[in-house]
Design brief:
Helix content is 29%, strand content 26%. The protein is of the alpha/beta class.
Length: 223
Amino acid sequence: MAWMSTGSTNAALVKNLTSNGLITSERVMNAMLAVDRAHYAPATPYHDSPQTIGFSATISAPHMHAAAAESLLPHLHPAARILDIGSGSGYLTAVLANLVGPSGKVVGVDHIQGLVDLAHKNMSKSQEGREMLEGGTVRFVKADGRLGLDDGEGGWDAIHVGAAAKEAHKVLVEQLRAPGRLFIPVGEDMQYIWVIDKKEDGSVVREKSFGVRYVPLTDAPRD
């Protein structure tokens, strides 16, 4: 029912996503209510559809952001460390930051400096966003997300990937804490969401979920 979830306001969009069963938890609902998509989507922010944001990138449809947040929710506890690869507009990074709270840390990674700057600019449009950036809850960095991000602080409780990888890169699983979860679209012609869990004992469980269509993870453009 994703196509029926479009609303005229952010609140209406989130209400419709909830009514259609795409948002199932109150925490995700409140986090998406707290982040106005109009600050991140350039044209029709409350349509439940992907939109271009420049640099050959898109902001995913709201129902996909809801699916990612719901999937990662068990690992989005206070003080959790979250990596958002292919952060693009910064929208989901902001939603994830609302879910982990001020004691958590969310790092958005993109391989194009223009998108890193765009995400920072978008998040700065709200007082809450500015406070998250200034307080260190959120930061955006330029890096090759296919390599994850080793910042020397002991890995990530959850990793979200917002573009399709050719494979579920081993290094991303290695950077998960135990327990931890990776949410990643994988494939070229046919793409599927894979949810990969690292259990407390270090064992890894992979689950192929549902079919999707994402832009691919690519090399950064040459300067």
